[in-house]
Amino acid sequence: MNILDIDHYNLRAEPELLDKLRDFYCSVVGLRIGKRPNLRSSGYWLYAGNKAVLHLSQAKPDEIRQAHVNGTFDHVAFSCSDLQAFELHLNRLGIQYRKSQIADTMQTQLFLSDPAGNGVELNFLP
Q1: What's domain 9-61+74-124's superfamily in CATH?
Q2: Nearest to 54 by CA among 20, 87, 26
Q3: What is the pTM of this model?
């Protein structure tokens, strides 16, 4: 019995925030909307390459989902390429981010937040 990989993560929100999350993860991070099975709730599956890595699900009418809260979840991380182009893209969009380097691996990380306050890390290897 082995864990092989992370399959996806899911964010649930009311329709207005769900659309803001969709737009953020597509226009800022670079995921794309793809095929989603016919499920009971509305939502989107966002893809990196051929894999649906982020599921966005509409909260039920009586469900309360708070945004911008502190809990144990810190961030999701994406492997990326072309650091310079990504920084230009974020700057053009006016997205605030923090840049960090890991000396041992020469890895560069960009940290930002989505519209619900969830942390997003973009990783770039040399």
Answers
A1: 2,3-Dihydroxybiphenyl 1,2-Dioxygenase, domain 1 (3.10.180.10)
A2: 26
A3: 0.92
